[in-house]
Amino acid sequence: MKKYQHIFFDLDHTLWDFDKNTVETIREIYDIYDFSKWDFFTFHEFMEVFREVNNHLWDKYNHGFIDQMELRNSRFGIILEKLGVAAENIPQGIGKKYLELSPIKPNVLPFTHDMLAYLKPKYRLHILSNGFVDVQHTKLKASKIHEYFEVIITSDSSGFRKPQKEIFEFAMSQAGATIDNALMIGDNLDTDIIGAQNASMDHVFFNPNKVKHQLTLMHEIHSLKEIMHIL
Fold this sequence. Notes:
By secondary structure, this protein is of the alpha/beta class. The chain folds into two domains: 135 residues, HAD superfamily/HAD-like (Rossmann fold); 87 residues, DNA polymerase, domain 1 (Orthogonal Bundle). The chain is built from ten helices and six strands. The protein has a six-stranded parallel beta sheet, sandwiched between helices. It starts with 5 loop residues before the first strand and ends with a helix. The relative contact order is 0.17.
């Protein structure tokens, strides 16, 4: 096993439990704006369309087709119009309310704290995320894992996005790491793993849902506790 010194983690879906936190947030949004009274859609329909639209917008952002502001400002307009809400009835500020509520959710994926506590004395730990710097810092603090990490690199702080190799090179330079002593851990094949491969960086694919794929990988795990057997 190569002697690593620096471990870079993706945040959403890898450490921070995006799915659980999002369900809680969308439930609050549904109740705050009393959408049930309109009888247009159920909470479950709201959640389903949110996932569909949010995933589509993030894919466009990751590939450089839209910017941060378009993602944030268009998200709920698209969602609610899909659900049959007329444009004039879409609540003002709903996108901002989502950004206030979502990052303060504390849920992390199973074994996150155990795994980070195990790694911290042995390695220098960092975050490498396509998320936005203000939101990611809030998530780290809310979930009580911020103290594990030294360098936080995001797409807006670096000027690049995964899978561009430049964001990985920028992250390593900021952390004082090199290709020879750095490892990337993430859940997204298109951004985290192909991006790491683009940068010739060692990598671990976190695949809790056991998604089938054809990529040749260095390591693949289905639980974060498996990292403690690799490192």
